[in-house]
Amino acid sequence: MDINERIRAILTEHPIVLFMKGTPEFPMCGFSSRAAMALSEAGAVFHAVNVLADPQLRAALPHFANWPTFPQLFIQGELIGGCDIIEDLKSAGELSRMASDVAGATS
Question: Are 54 and 22 in contact (CB under 8 A)?
Answer without folding.
Answer: no
